Amino acid sequence: MKRRAFLGLFLLPLARGQGPTPALTQGPYYLRDVPQREDLREGLPGVPLRLLLRVRDRACRPLQGARVDLWHTDALGRYSGVNAPGTFCRGWQATDERGEVAFLTLFPGWYPSRTPHLHLRVEAGGRVFATQLFFPEEVQREVYALPPYRERGMPRVNNRQDGLFRADLLLRLEREGEGYRGAFVLTLPG
Question: Where does the signal sequence lie (predicted)?
């Protein structure tokens, strides 16, 4: 499926009547010096996750040239550069003229105090915006039944138990081959 058609499936319904995306803590594990790239997997095992993001201002105009950082744990719940060497599952891209970026990564693992999530940071016009995206629990059950995730089992903290979880930051996911694809519109405040 072509990228524009794929984006239309997810982004158009999300764009109607949406206010600014809720900001959430950047968290302690952001690293600025990571590669500019689309594929964050570095050959690691795990379920592929294709993520398409559209960044826009509060007036719904696309933001071209914004830096979008994405980072998360590997399948075993480790952050690169923190409790494992390297830069796996980390990278950034600049938005195109439509305000879009695409990443190919892995469905993240979990660690004891949090539900599975992705971190996003956007720099645009001298301003910084950070948030997190979450996963439907039915998808988590499917993914964590597969290797290498099944070695650790289901997360200890579900979405409702996570103090940062917000239902409006839940990714809508579709199957894509052996993995999933999702899209999200980031509407920056002010």
Answer: none
